[in-house]
Amino acid sequence: EELRIEWGATEVRVYTRTWRVERTTPYSRVDISTGDQQTNLYRGFFGKRFGGGEGIQFGAQQYGTTPPGRVSPSSDQISLLARLGWAKRGWSFDAFALRTSRDRGEINPQPIRGTVAVDSIPALTAARTDAYVRAGYGDPEHGPWLQAMASSVGYTISHTSNNGFGAPSADTLAKDTTRFRAQYIVQGGFTLGPLRLDAAERYRVGPGIFVPPPFCSVCAPKPSPRTPAPKLWTPSARVEFVTGPLSVSAFAEGMGPDSLNRAEVTTRLTPLPFLSVVGAVGTSKDQANPDSSATTNFIRGEAAIRLFGSLWMSGGLLRRDSTLLVPPRVFGRPFVAVEGPAATGYMAKIEGTIYKALRVDAFGVRWNDTSGFYRPRYQTRSEIYLATNWLSRFPSGNFSFLASVSQEYRSRTLFPVVLDTTTGFQAISVPDSRIWNFHLEIRIVSAILTYQFRDIRGDPYELVPGYLMPRLNQFYGVRWEFWN
Q1: What is the pLDDT of residue 111?
Q2: How far apart (Å, rounded) are the C-alpha atoms in residues 324 and 337?
Q3: Residues with Cβ within 8 Å of residue 326, at least 6 apart in sequence
């Protein structure tokens, strides 16, 4: 229902608010979409709140695709959602469950830029269940509040084949894998005028909170000091003060599943209506490594000026100390953790209204080094879009129109791949990519027609070696909401 992205100095934090039903009038929504690669998606929601404060929510989704161009068998996914709750006089209780089952076919080798790339995605059958029960009192937007939650995630996966680079080992493929982890959260705080304070304690229970990939420095791999932890306490706290042109926030978090703790402070100052300045400093420390070099400091600074009414232009820099760069484990065994030197990136951004309903959102960053691993030196995303309700023709607000063209560019990216325990690693790369996309949405009362055309030019490209991205994909359909 709500999504907020907070760009700090040490990390990007994403806050979400789940779908709520606050009316006693029944609500339902139906999505029907289709597209290239014989793709079909069907989704439905229903929710209702009763006079006594009880609430029910249900949802289901079926997604399937058969990409004939890649000679792959069909893949499909089915998801079921349910939520029951009760709220009255500041108190709220709810229980939630989401079950997702998917069956994915093996991705076969395909030519890319004159060579045959072996995709590293084997076939699998998997099921995941997310569930929680929660009790709370108060409203996080006003006054004091408190909530407690017990949640769990269960995952079952079955690999059925292995087709090469980066895929799981034969030992992994020979057996099914089942994992379960529980998390218990107590969180509370208060909001009083310009001051907002909240604190939380998380208790995670489950096998292998963190198991790192191999580490390789220059040519000699060495074992990592991290070890799996079946239990983990992670406290966190946040303070925010907003008044007039000044906003100050501080965030601190204890050791998480990645063995890092973090702390940072962000300040935003708008001394004039057309001028804004943002500064952030932060630090993180690897608690599994006693060496002082495990502490990494971060700096982010940005200044923006408003031109021609509501068009903002900004520039700034990002700086990070040397640190251990750890690849996501999902990409397979060949990729290794390496020490990355200190890096500085320069960024520029343009966003806002160009003329009437024509708007722009463009961002770019350039790093000072040419040999950094796991990130491109140049990266940009530019979007020009037309968004209007056309109130002069439809004063009731029952019509809206959105059309956008975007381009995403990433320069060549280096990845360290382990060869063996004696020769160290080799740097391989994926070439640069320029991807154009088109998006169209038309709303008539409560029905939204949508059309997306991704990778318009049909360029074959990879973001990670061995993972060929989808090409020339069109997806279109309708979303329809009902209150009755």
Answers
A1: 59
A2: 7
A3: 212, 213, 258, 337
Cα 394 to the center of its chain, rounded Å: 36
C-alpha distance from residue 63 to each of 74, 127, 165, 449 (Å): 11, 14, 27, 19
Q: What CA–CA distance (Å, rounded) separates 57 from 27? A: 9
Q: What value, to the nearest 5°, has the Cα angle with vertex 397 and ends 394 and 403?
A: 85
Tokens of residue 182, six digits: 């529980």
Among 262, 365, 351, 282, residue whose Cα is nearest residue 317? 365
What's the confidence (pLDDT) of residue 2? 87
Per-residue tokens: 345: 């990136």
Nearest to 79 by CA among 97, 55, 62: 62
Structure tokens at 2: 């709500």
- In percent, the amount of the chain with pLDDT more than 90 equals 58
Tokens of 199: 């604190």
Question: For residue 81, which of 125, 47, 49, 41 has the smallest C-alpha distance?
Answer: 47
Give the rounded distance of the alpha carbon of 352 from its chain centre: 24
Digit-coded pLDDT (tens) for 310-348 = 999 999 999 999 988 888 777 766 788 888 899 999 999
- Tokens 């000699």, located at residue: 220
**What gap in Å lies between CA 2 and CA 85, rounded to an integer?**
19
Q: What's the pLDDT tens digit per position in 295-306?
A: 899 999 999 999
The whole-model pTM stands at: 0.82
CB atoms < 10 A from the CB of 375, how many?
Answer: 17
Element (H, E) at 173: helix 170-173
CA distance 478 to 143: 41
Average confidence score pLDDT of the chain: 86
